[in-house]
């Protein structure tokens, strides 16, 4: 295997759609989140990344694991995998794209192809559970 990119993501659903973000200069959307800094825990990474990307504060005591997914990393050499631990959580504040985020969108199951490959399984699982339409 060429490598593993370890990430966490915030699964935020509203009216049967999931929040996706697109970084400046990128084509695909992804579930908000990112890579840990040093020895950060999943929760620490999640809280920091969501605050940096969407300017809201997640409520730590509401963080709940949804699932962990792996797929080929978009834009990396074949064999480079991404592992994404997904969590839900309540938040305080108003969702707003930070300077690194070019666009936010509410995505349906039919729009999963607009997202990174690792997100596809998340979309399928959420749809199977009746949470994403």
TrEMBL record:
<keyword id="KW-0378">Hydrolase</keyword>
<dbReference type="GO" id="GO:0016787">
    <property type="term" value="F:hydrolase activity"/>
</dbReference>
<dbReference type="InterPro" id="IPR015797">
    <property type="entry name" value="NUDIX_hydrolase-like_dom_sf"/>
</dbReference>
<dbReference type="InterPro" id="IPR000086">
    <property type="entry name" value="NUDIX_hydrolase_dom"/>
</dbReference>
<feature type="domain" description="Nudix hydrolase">
    <location>
        <begin position="1"/>
        <end position="128"/>
    </location>
</feature>
<dbReference type="InterPro" id="IPR020084">
    <property type="entry name" value="NUDIX_hydrolase_CS"/>
</dbReference>
<protein>
    <submittedName>
        <fullName>NUDIX hydrolase</fullName>
    </submittedName>
</protein>
<dbReference type="Pfam" id="PF00293">
    <property type="entry name" value="NUDIX"/>
</dbReference>
């Amino acid at each position: 295997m060429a490598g593993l990119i370890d990430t966490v993501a915030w699964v935020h659903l509203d009216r049967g759609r999931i929040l996706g973000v697109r970084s400046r200069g990128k084509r695909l959307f992804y579930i908000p989140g990112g890579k840990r800094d040093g020895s950060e825990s999943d929760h620490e990474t999640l809280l920091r990344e969501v605050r940096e990307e969407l300017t809201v504060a997640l409520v730590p005591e509401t963080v709940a694991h949804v699932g962990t997914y792996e797929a080929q990393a978009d834009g990396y050499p074949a064999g480079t995998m991404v592992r994404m631990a997904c969590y839900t959580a309540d938040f305080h504040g108003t969702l707003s794209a930070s300077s690194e985020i070019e666009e936010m969108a509410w995505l349906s199951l039919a729009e999963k192809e607009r997202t990174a490959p690792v997100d596809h399984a998340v979309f399928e699982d959420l749809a199977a559970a009746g949470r994403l339409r």
